[in-house]
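Exercise 7b. Backbone tokens:
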């Protein structure tokens, strides 16, 4: 490989913050709002033109699971669509949610920077001091006391040198990617809405999931359909790309192209085989590919699938009342992976995540929130979903504000103080 040597240049330091949040998805929103509400001067940086990540630009259909939490429930209430058609309180109207996220951030006093990448981290030895951003404005530097990585892939934490592994422990393989899209022209009176891979009920042509495997080319081949807030419109979670790495731009491009090519085939399948979809047609698709799994950072603590199955309440909890299943999409094809469990998941109680999962090894003044926290591959399939990410963000943002007030790195924070502040905000164990 040959190299180009970049000319040394001066990067302007344009601002200084108590807390910088990298990534504007549900975890980032939770972190930024919580840090600002607890008195920290806070900046959130998002690469897209909208806040929300997979919840908005990713066109996700709904908030999954039975997680509870004051900030998450506030988001649900404020973004609830009173004209929600066939949906329910967890159904997402992405256009409304985009505005609600902006309103909540601005009300909290968060400075918002869109259309901007965090391209590097400023460090002194292993202590984070700020970030370098890239945008149409050019390269700029922002200093901060605490950086929270909510990028999903842990891009900022990786640039800072925090240790991580990718994918599952045995071979590094990662869950497939999906490009969400919506179809219109659906007859809701006769339409079916299989919401899990394990929903394999009979329709006139056969069993619904079996039909998909037989008629939609590999690696797609399952049916996940969700009601929306718009009449006759349904969200499709059915495209699929395997053997790709969400930290690689070439792989992201490959996945996006492959999933777009699958859309027409899927629409034809729906029209031919699925009740209520005979006249459906594609009307919109996500602006970003949905990446389920990449980096798992090594933290002071690591949450495992056994912790979740036991509904474990850690003494040093940071996020609570987390509830979902083992949503492992098939790493080698369509449908549910043999290690996953959706409808058959038997643990109805909520679990907790210890604070140490948010604190990466080696690097100071850095916190993690979202799917990049310290956890095993199977545990990650549970905590990666958006409601849980909001709660993780709330914990990280609150912790960051406390660290700023005390002038200490996150590793030194007394977790009982974090728990006291979270409890006063309405967090319950």
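Sequence design result:
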């Amino acid at each position: 490989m040959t190299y180009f040597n970049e000319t040394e240049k001066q990067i302007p330091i344009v601002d200084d913050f108590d807390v910088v949040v990298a990534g504007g998805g549900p975890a980032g929103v939770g972190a930024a709002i919580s840090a600002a509400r607890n008195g920290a001067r806070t900046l959130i940086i998002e690469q897209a033109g909208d806040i929300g990540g997979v919840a908005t630009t990713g066109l996700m259909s709904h908030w999954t699971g039975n997680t509870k939490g004051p900030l998450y429930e506030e988001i649900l209430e404020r973004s609830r669509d009173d004209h929600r058609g066939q949906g329910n309180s967890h159904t997402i109207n992405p256009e409304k949610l985009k505005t609600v996220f902006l309103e909540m951030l601005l009300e909290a006093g968060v400075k918002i920077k869109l259309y901007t990448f965090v391209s590097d981290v400023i460090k002194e030895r292993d202590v984070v001091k700020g970030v370098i951003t890239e945008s149409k404005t050019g390269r700029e530097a922002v200093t901060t006391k605490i950086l929270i990585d909510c990028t999903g892939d842990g891009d900022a934490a990786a640039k800072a040198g925090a240790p991580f592994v990718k994918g599952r422990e045995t071979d590094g393989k990662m869950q497939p990617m999906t490009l969400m899209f919506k179809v219109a022209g659906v007859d809701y009176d006769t339409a079916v809405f299989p919401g899990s891979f394990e929903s394999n009920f009979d329709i006139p042509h056969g069993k619904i999931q079996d039909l998909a495997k037989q008629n939609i080319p590999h690696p797609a081949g399952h049916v996940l359909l969700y009601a929306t807030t718009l009449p006759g419109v349904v969200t499709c979670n059915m495209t699929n790309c395997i053997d790709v790495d969400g930290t690689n731009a070439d792989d992201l491009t490959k996945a996006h192209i492959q999933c777009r090519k699958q859309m027409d085939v899927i629409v034809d399948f729906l029209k031919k085989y699925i009740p209520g979809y005979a006249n459906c047609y594609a009307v919109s698709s996500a602006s970003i590919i949905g990446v389920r799994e990449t980096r798992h950072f090594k933290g002071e603590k690591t949450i495992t699938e056994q912790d979740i199955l036991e509904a474990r309440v850690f003494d040093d909890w940071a996020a609570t009342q987390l509830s979902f299943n083992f949503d492992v999409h098939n790493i080698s094809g369509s449908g549910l992976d043999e290690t996953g469990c959706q409808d058959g998941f038997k643990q109805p109680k909520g679990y907790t995540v210890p604070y140490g999962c948010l604190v990466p090894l080696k690097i100071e003044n850095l916190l993690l929130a979202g799917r990049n926290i310290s956890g095993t591959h199977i545990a990650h399939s549970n905590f990666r979903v958006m409601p849980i990410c909001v709660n993780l963000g709330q914990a990280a943002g609150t912790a960051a504000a406390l660290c700023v007030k005390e002038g200490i790195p996150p590793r030194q924070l007394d977790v009982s103080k974090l728990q006291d502040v979270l409890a006063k905000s309405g967090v319950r164990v």
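Instructor comment: The chain has two domains: 13-169+294-327+352-424, 181-285. The chain has ten helices and 17 strands.
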